[in-house]
């Protein structure tokens, strides 16, 4: 049995038993907040529990490292949609200690791509198209600096409402303790 089969079998039972009822809410965040955080598995339940958030309270945008790497990329678009269409009045950027993006090595990722069959010609085409893969795949050395940088990109984005507070925090993936990096009020 495959992972997908297990998921679909469980889902069928979930729907048949109407287990979804306890999670019903609207598309608008009750606490009028959007969070940009890391996709780290340790944060899936820990982060909302450590902040007293439940289903329906917040919009959550996740990526590797909680990084806004491009001012007109999908992360920034999601944050703008949350503010202008989904009634979010504050933004939290939450990075975490022991983040995989702090140890990422672009050469290592590119080597793994090659090992999995991505041909050198494809990598060359990407590079010739103006994408510096090493820059695109780079991580960070300080989670606090990375969070502050993402807060700055959001706060100073030409399309972001200047009245929206943008805060930056770092969470411990072990205890859930939050440390303030940038207070946006």
What does this entry look like structurally?
With 185 residues, this protein is α/β, with parallel strands linked by helices. 37% of the residues lie in helices and 16% in strands. The protein has 7 helices and 5 strands; from the N terminus they run αβαβαβααααββ. The protein has helices at 3-16, 43-50, 74-84, 106-115, 120-128, 133-136, 143-155; strands at 33-38, 58-63, 90-96, 166-171, 178-182. Strands 2-1-3-4-5 form a 5-stranded mixed beta sheet, sandwiched between helices. The longest helix has 14 residues, at 3-16. The chain is globular. The mean pLDDT is 97.
List the helices and strands and how they pair.
Blueprint: H1 3-16, E1 33-38, H2 43-50, E2 58-63, H3 74-84, E3 90-96, H4 106-115, H5 120-128, H6 133-136, H7 143-155, E4 166-171, E5 178-182
Parallel strand pairs: 1-2, 1-3, 3-4
Antiparallel strand pairs: 4-5
């Amino acid at each position: 049995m495959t992972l997908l089969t297990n998921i679909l079998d469980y889902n069928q039972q979930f729907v048949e038993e109407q287990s979804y009822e306890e999670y019903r809410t609207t598309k608008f965040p009750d606490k009028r907040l959007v969070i940009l955080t890391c996709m780290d598995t340790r944060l899936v339940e820990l982060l909302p529990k450590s902040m007293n958030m439940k289903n329906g309270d917040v919009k959550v945008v996740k990526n590797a490292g909680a990084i806004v790497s491009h001012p007109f990329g999908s992360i920034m678009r999601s944050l703008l949609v949350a503010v202008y269409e989904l009634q979010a009045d504050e933004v939290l950027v939450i990075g975490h200690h022991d983040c995989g993006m702090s140890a990422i090595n672009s050469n290592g990722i590119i080597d793994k791509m090659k090992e999995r069959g991505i041909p050198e010609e494809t990598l060359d085409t990407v590079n010739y198209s103006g994408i510096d893969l090493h820059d695109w795949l780079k991580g960070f050395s300080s989670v606090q600096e990375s969070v502050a940088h993402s807060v700055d990109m959001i706060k100073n984005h030409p399309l972001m409402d200047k009245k929206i507070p943008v805060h930056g925090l770092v969470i411990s993936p072990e205890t859930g303790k939050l440390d303030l990096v940038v207070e946006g009020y």
